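Tokens for chain A. Residues wanted.
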């Protein structure tokens, strides 16, 4: 999976903690024997109750003494399926999201969290490829026109998961349309309104209800959604995309090629798009 600039569908545990009223520091340490008595999961859950109430599907997976350093505990927690490791003092008053080994200069927490992220990337990539994506396509863009049904026959195609209020999606759409028109590639568009973007849900629903295509979606980034009429079918579509597509991607835009290659993030050149096709 190629990962470029994108709007993430979820945040890390560290990012959520950074926004909470908890002490947050980076730690530099030298290895010392561990003699820490850490809180139990139930004790830590109680101490983090205010934080947990603000997080989507937060759960603590494990707590144990931080082996390289005494008087600290390592916590592995999960938010919406993404694992993150961080350190706490035994009283949980201080949280450390970075831990740099003074002997090596390496951030041991960053290395561990990178492994968690790679595992999640592979899991979500496989989940996305196992889905019947055609059932989630709002419209197909082909040779300058968008079709909500019965698109013309085409030889090459890609899937494009986008959000009308996502800046990285907006930056990529003009290049995508020009490339698709030049190479006669069908772009199967799945519209996902991320909760982090104000007005995105109403805009996405309005585009669907009024059968507006990729050109209108691109223009909607800088315009109000108030003029777009809403309908139950559009709301049902967007609710389904959020429920079934969003858990299987890392962010928008996401491209899935006819050759099963996945790119997450804004593409910047045609070679990246060409790599999504079997042959051009």
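Reply:
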């Amino acid at each position: 999976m190629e990962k470029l600039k994108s709007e993430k569908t979820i945040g890390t545990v560290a990012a959520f903690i950074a926004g909470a009223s908890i002490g947050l520091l980076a730690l530099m340490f030298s290895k010392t024997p561990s003699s820490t008595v850490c809180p139990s999961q139930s004790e830590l859950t109680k101490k983090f109750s205010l934080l947990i109430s603000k997080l989507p599907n937060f759960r603590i997976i494990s707590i144990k003494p931080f082996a390289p350093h005494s008087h600290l505990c390592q916590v592995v927690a999960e938010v919406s399926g993404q694992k993150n490791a961080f350190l706490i003092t035994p009283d949980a008053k201080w949280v450390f999201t970075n831990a740099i080994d003074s002997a090596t200069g390496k951030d041991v927490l960053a290395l561990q969290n990178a492994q968690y992220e790679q595992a999640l990337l592979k899991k979500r990539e496989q989940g996305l490829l196992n889905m019947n994506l055609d059932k989630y396509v709002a419209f197909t863009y082909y040779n300058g026109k968008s079709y909500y049904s019965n698109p013309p026959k085409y030889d090459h195609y890609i899937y494009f998961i986008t959000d009308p209020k996502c800046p990285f999606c907006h930056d990529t759409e003009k290049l995508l349309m020009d490339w698709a028109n030049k190479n006669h590639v069908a772009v199967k568009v799945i519209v996902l309104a991320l909760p982090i973007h104000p007005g995105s849900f109403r805009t996405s629903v309005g585009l669907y209800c009024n059968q507006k295509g990729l050109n209108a979606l691109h223009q909607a980034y800088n315009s109000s959604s108030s003029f777009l009429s809403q309908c139950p079918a559009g709301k049902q579509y967007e609710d389904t995309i959020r429920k079934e597509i969003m858990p299987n991607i890392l962010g928008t835009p996401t491209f899935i090629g006819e050759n099963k290659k996945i790119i997450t993030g804004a593409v910047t050149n045609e070679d990246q798009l060409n790599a999504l096709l079997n042959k051009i």
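Confidence is low (pLDDT under 50) at residues 18-24. The first strand starts at residue 2 and ends at 3.
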